[in-house]
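Note to self: keep these together.
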Amino acid sequence: MSHRSRLAGFIIDCKRGSLESSADFWSQALGLEVQDYDEDGLGLYAPLSDGPGGLHIEVQKVSHPSRVHLDIETDDIEAEVTRLENLGAKRIEFVRERWWVMEAPSGHRFCVVPMAKKSSRAKPNVWR
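Structure:
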């Protein structure tokens, strides 16, 4: 059975400063409005308006060192994670019973997340 996936966007992980001040900085730096200073009420996520090509851009409060990571969205989480494992990635953590944090062979962290229902992003790749 086939599944689909594509680049969803970029997450800006911020350890220092408040979520609000970090979101304000990146909003102004990228020219994108802050959509919500506390999405889900957890004090962890502040999505910005869509970036170029409809990419999701979000500021996230973290305890690990600050970095930028990408999200790959898919209509079949398990199939996409397995496909990426076959390429050499490894599973790190299943978060909120919704998405996987993965690590590429290069050591870069990224997430595999559910595909957005409506999106102006590029057409997804179809994997068999």
